[in-house]
From TrEMBL:
<feature type="binding site">
    <location>
        <begin position="156"/>
        <end position="162"/>
    </location>
    <ligand>
        <name>ATP</name>
    </ligand>
</feature>
<feature type="domain" description="ATP-grasp">
    <location>
        <begin position="115"/>
        <end position="305"/>
    </location>
</feature>
<comment type="subunit">
    <text>Homodimer.</text>
</comment>
<dbReference type="InterPro" id="IPR003135">
    <property type="entry name" value="ATP-grasp_carboxylate-amine"/>
</dbReference>
<keyword id="KW-0436">Ligase</keyword>
<dbReference type="Pfam" id="PF02222">
    <property type="entry name" value="ATP-grasp"/>
</dbReference>
<dbReference type="InterPro" id="IPR054350">
    <property type="entry name" value="PurT/PurK_preATP-grasp"/>
</dbReference>
<feature type="binding site">
    <location>
        <position position="198"/>
    </location>
    <ligand>
        <name>ATP</name>
    </ligand>
</feature>
<dbReference type="GO" id="GO:0034028">
    <property type="term" value="F:5-(carboxyamino)imidazole ribonucleotide synthase activity"/>
</dbReference>
<feature type="binding site">
    <location>
        <position position="151"/>
    </location>
    <ligand>
        <name>ATP</name>
    </ligand>
</feature>
<keyword id="KW-0067">ATP-binding</keyword>
<dbReference type="Pfam" id="PF17769">
    <property type="entry name" value="PurK_C"/>
</dbReference>
<dbReference type="InterPro" id="IPR011761">
    <property type="entry name" value="ATP-grasp"/>
</dbReference>
<comment type="function">
    <text>Catalyzes the ATP-dependent conversion of 5-aminoimidazole ribonucleotide (AIR) and HCO(3)- to N5-carboxyaminoimidazole ribonucleotide (N5-CAIR).</text>
</comment>
<protein>
    <recommendedName>
        <fullName>N5-carboxyaminoimidazole ribonucleotide synthase</fullName>
        <ecNumber>6.3.4.18</ecNumber>
    </recommendedName>
</protein>
<dbReference type="InterPro" id="IPR040686">
    <property type="entry name" value="PurK_C"/>
</dbReference>
<keyword id="KW-0547">Nucleotide-binding</keyword>
Length: 366
C-alpha cells in the first residue's frame, strides 16, 4: 500500500528531502520559516542543504537500511534531485508519503516518457524518435532530416549528454558522444527547434487540487548553462497565457502534488513547444524569492506538506543572474548595488561552471 498525505502537516513536522544541493538548501530555509524541520538524505557529506537543516543522513540512494530509518524519522518525503533510482521512491512510498508521487517522478526521469506524456495529453513538443542502437541512427536521422539533436534519455543536465547533428556531423562520432562505446543505448533524436525564445513556467498543485502558476519567464543560456532569467518573458499576452494553460493542464493530468517546472520553446512561428520538465523548484524560478509574495521554495514546501498554496502575486519584475565558478568573487561589488539581492549557496570550491549562487535585481512594478 502506498502512503499519501491527506491533511496538512502541523508546524514542527519533519520534511525529508532527497538531494542536498542549493535547491534543497533554499527549500529547507523556506520550510524553516513555516516552522518545519528538514531532514536531508544525500550521498555527499558537507552539502549545501544539510548546512541549514536540523537533520541529515549521508548514505547512497540504494542503502535500504538508511532509507528505512529516514522514512521513520520524517512526515513526508520530497526531492530536490529527481534522478534518484526509481527503486528508492518505490521503497519509500511503502512507508511514507512521497510528493510528487512516483508516477510524476517516473515521467520526469526520462525524456522519451516526458514527450510521450505531453503528446498523450495534446501538449505540443518538437518531433522526436527513439533510437536504441548505432545502426538505427542513420535511418532515423535520414527520416527526420538534419539539423537534429541526439540526447541521452536519462540523467542529462546543463546540456550534457547531447549532441547537435548538423549537415556534416559524422553519426559515428555523434553516437559516441552520447552513448560512449555502447552499441545499444536508449537515446532520443529531436528535430532542432527554430526558437525565438526559451521560456519556463513553474506550476504548483496542492493536495486539494488547487493550482498556481508563476508568470512565464525568459531564459538565456551561456555554454548550455542558464545564465539569466528575465521576468516576465518578453512575449505577447496570448503566448504567455498559452504557456500557463499548458502548465496547468500538465499538472492536472499528472495529478501532481508539489511543483513542476516546465521548459518551453517559443518558435519563430509563435508556437509554444514543451522541451522538458523537472518535478521540483527550478533555477529559473529563483527570482520569485525576491519578487513575489510567495517564493517558489515556500510554494513547493506548502504543496508537498499538504498546506494551501500562497499568493504568487509579483510585486516586482526581475532579472536573475547565476554566479558560476569564479563569478562568486564579485560578491562585494554585487552587494554595493542596493537593488541587487545576493544569494550564496555556501559551496567551498568554485569549480568552473559550478552554480555558486545567484543575484536578483528587482525592478518594482509601478
Ligand atoms: N530540440 C531542440 N531544439 C533546439 N534547441 C534545443 C533542443 N533541445 C535542446 N536545445 C537547447 O539545448 C539546451 C539544453 O537542452 P535540454 O534543456 O533539453 O537539456 P538539459 O541538459 O536537461 O539542460 P538543463 O539541465 O540546463 O535544463 C536547451 O535549453 C536549448 O537551448
Ligand atoms: Mg533544459
Amino acid at each position: 500500500m502506498s502512503k499519501t498525505l491527506t491533511a496538512p502537516l502541523a508546524p514542527g513536522s519533519v520534511i525529508g528531502i532527497l538531494g542536498g544541493g542549493q535547491l534543497g538548501r533554499m527549500a529547507a530555509s523556506a520550510a524553516a520559516e513555516l516552522g518545519y524541520h528538514c531532514h536531508i538524505f544525500c550521498p555527499e557529506e558537507n552539502n549545501p542543504a544539510s548546512e541549514v537543516s536540523k537533520y541529515y543522513t549521508t548514505a547512497d540512494y540504494d542503502d535500504e537500511a538508511a532509507l528505512a530509518k529516514f522514512a521513520e524519522q520524517v512526515d513526508v518525503v520530497t526531492y530536490e534531485f529527481e534522478n534518484v533510482p526509481a527503486s528508492t521512491a518505490a521503497f519509500l512510498i511503502e512507508r511514507i508519503a512521497v510528493n510528487p508521487g512516483p508516477k510524476v517522478l517516473h515521467i520526469c526521469q526520462n525524456r522519451l516518457r516526458e514527450k510521450d506524456f505531453c503528446n498523450s495529453i495534446k501538449v505540443p513538443t518538437t518531433k522526436y524518435a527513439e533510437v536504441t542502437n548505432r545502426e538505427n541512427l542513420d535511418r532515423v536521422v535520414r527520416d527526420m532530416g538534419r539539423p537534429c539533436i541526439l540526447k541521452t534519455t536519462e540523467m542529462g543536465y546543463d546540456g550534457k549528454g547531447q549532441v547537435l547533428i548538423g549537415p556534416d556531423t559524422d553519426l559515428k562520432e555523434a553516437w559516441k558522444t552520447v552513448a560512449g562505446d555502447r552499441k545499444k543505448a536508449e537515446t532520443i533524436l529531436e528535430t532542432l527547434v527554430d526558437f525565438r525564445m526559451e521560456i519556463s513556467v513553474i506550476v504548483a498543485r496542492s493536495i486539494q487540487g488547487a493550482c498556481q502558476t508563476y508568470v512565464p519567464v525568459e531564459n538565456r543560456h551561456k555554454n548550455h548553462i542558464l545564465d539569466q532569467t528575465i521576468v516576465p518573458a518578453r512575449i505577447s499576452q496570448k503566448i504567455s497565457d498559452r504557456a500557463e494553460v499548458i502548465a496547468r493542464h500538465m499538472a492536472e493530468e499528472m495529478q501532481l502534488v508539489g511543483m513542476l517546472a516546465i521548459e518551453m520553446f517559443v518558435t519563430t512561428e509563435d508556437e509554444v513547444l514543451v522541451n522538458e520538465m523537472a518535478p521540483r523548484p527550478h533555477n529559473s524560478g529563483h527570482w520569485s524569492m525576491d519578487a513575489c509574495v510567495t517564493s517558489q521554495f515556500e510554494q513547493f514546501i506548502r504543496a508537498v506538506s499538504g498546506l494551501s498554496l500562497g499568493s504568487v502575486y509579483r510585486h516586482s519584475d526581475a532579472v536573475m543572474t547565476n554566479l558560476l565558478g569564479d563569478d562568486v568573487n564579485g560578491w562585494e561589488e554585487i552587494l554595493s548595488d542596493p537593488s541587487a539581492k545576493l544569494h550564496l549557496y555556501g559551496k567551498s570550491e568554485a569549480k568552473p561552471g559550478r552554480k555558486m549562487g545567484h543575484v536578483t535585481r528587482v525592478i518594482p512594478r509601478k
